[in-house]
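Narrative of activities, Objective 1.

The group set out to show that a structural description can be obtained from nothing but a protein's sequence at a throughput compatible with the screening campaign. Below is one input-output pair from the validation batch, recorded exactly as produced.
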Amino acid sequence: MATAICNKRENYNEIVLVTELGKWFDLNQGGADEYSVSLWEWYNTVAIRSGNEEFIYHSQPFVYRWNAPIPQTLADEILRTGDFEIYVESNQYRSMGIMMDKEWKEENKVFPNLNLKANVIIQNIDEVRGCFDNNA
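Output recorded for this entry:
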């Protein structure tokens, strides 16, 4: 379960999802891309499904803030349904901003980041559906 917060900015709008762990997911409209998603971690792969819309992105992370453009149809479907599935695959050689090699990980007994799959329900979706009404 997540609570959504609508932030209307000068050049873009964002819907921030918050749980008991804090802010972790942004659905963005405007800025560098028409629509995008932001997460905070060193992810190699992110996949999102809402309704019949699917998105998958795979790359090598260069910064802690993961961001990728998504199709408008996916953003529309998340706002329509109020829920989505997300799968993330963490980069196994980065942890909290530290670049590690295999020797360092073994020497320091660093537990590998686990992949995560979650079903997300936005409990106040009716309050934020209009966040993207005025194009940024």
